[in-house]
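Single-chain item
Fold in token form
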Amino acid sequence: MSTQATHAERRVLPERGTVALVYAAGVSAGMALGRFIPLSSDVRGDFGLSLAAFGWLVSGITVVGAALALPAGLWIARGDLGRVLSTGLAVMLLGGILEVVSPSVLLLYTARTLEGCGYLLVVITGPLVLSARCGPATERGVLALWSTFIPVGMALASAAGTLRSCCLSGLEDCVFAGQA
């Protein structure tokens, strides 16, 4: 059996479904990057973090990525991409849940590091899955779409944090313009 035939048999979802799911995974990873920024005063106050300590918390995901990207990429290239992507999402979810219920700064930083490991799996695996499962006619466009996952995810995280603040403080604090 040829490699192409095996590749075609492994496709479980139609191409659009695969693109949608992988892109949603990427956007959720982008949201993880920006989730703490709109919550800075609450998180800093609840855990007694200095601005520098909060900066390390926010950048924890990117620190993990910088330290582990090359070995993770080499390891991921040898694995089942679908399973690696699913594992990355599960690890990100676990890290996010632990962040929410964290009673201590140590657990908060540990959870953020765990979330960073999941983030790394998702962002490395996403384009590999898209390249493997999309046809040559759509691959470039799909990879261009993938390149937007961070700004879209961060925008959604910022909007969600702003809405959370509006709900907690009252709608009068959520006027967009016109106050003089």
Q: What stands out?
A: The chain has a mean pLDDT of 87. The helical segments are 3-10, 15-34, 40-47, 51-76, 81-101, 105-133, 136-146, 149-169. The two ends are 72 Å apart (CA to CA).
